[in-house]
Amino acid sequence: GESVGLHLPTLSVQEGDNSIINCAYSNSASDYFIWYKQESGKGPQFIIDIRSNMDKRQGQRVTVLLNKTVKHLSLQIAATQPGDSAVYFCAENFLNNAGNMLTFGGGTRLMVKP
Amino acid sequence: DAMVIQNPRYQVTQFGKPVTLSCSQTLNHNVMYWYQQKSSQAPKLLFHYYDKDFNNEADTPDNFQSRRPNTSFCFLDIRSPGLGDAAMYLCATSRDPRRDTQYFGPGTRLTVL
């Protein structure tokens, strides 16, 4: 379902440190998960995805971990840079009669301090 | 290099005055989506087209309509915008509606006066 909120949780990290952004998803039938990065005034940008038959996937400087037992997803960013400052959304994807449903989590704002 | 293009990037309209937002894609994807995103909130799906088949979300107001004249283009029509319709409107595409990555355009910021 839709996440509603006036205030996004914020993670503040020092440049060069690692960042971990967490997400709890809602539907145990979800079988595909995506992390998006959204910079101010722009559309969401695909970062990395993972299917439910995996529990870890690595990209360039990013790693996604999936724990289906507790319905938890995390995004790890190594050596965080100022350009990583953005809002990060996890999205879960499950199939219903209307086709795929991409449901977004509430988002986390990442602020990188130089 | 643009893949999902939205025009205009910023749109100002008056209360009750119909407005149309456009989206085009160069990916030849079968599915096109429209989302509404309000400040500090996650995108909310309004509807999507799978080829010519229109799929409306149950809670999308009748004030919002969509047209897809061909594979490349999709339009969002707001028949009588209210102040509460001010938001960022995002278009997205995917090859297939099943477990496929959606690619988003830059969005159109709608202001209602």
Interface with most residues: A-B, 31 and 29 residues
Instruction: Output the structural class of chain A.
Output: mainly beta
Average pLDDT reading of chain A: 89
Q: What is the arithmetic mean of pLDDT of chain B?
A: 93
- The share of residues in extended strands of chain A comes to over 45%
List keywords for this structure.
heterodimer, A: 114 residues, mainly beta, six-stranded mixed sheet, four-stranded antiparallel sheet, 0% helix, globular, disordered N terminus, B: 113 residues, seven-stranded mixed sheet, 51% strand
How is this structure best described in words?
The complex is a heterodimer of chains A (114) and B (113). Chain A has 114 residues and is mainly β. Chain A is 0% helix and 55% strand. In chain A, a hairpin with a 6-residue loop joins strand 3 and strand 4. The N terminus of chain A is likely disordered. In chain B, the strands form 2 sheets. In chain B, strands 2, 4, 5, 6, 9, 10 and 11 form a 7-stranded mixed β-sheet that branches. In chain B, strands 1-3-8-7 form a 4-stranded antiparallel β-sheet, with no helix packed on it. The mean pLDDT of chain B is 93. The interface between A and B is medium-sized, with 31 and 29 residues.
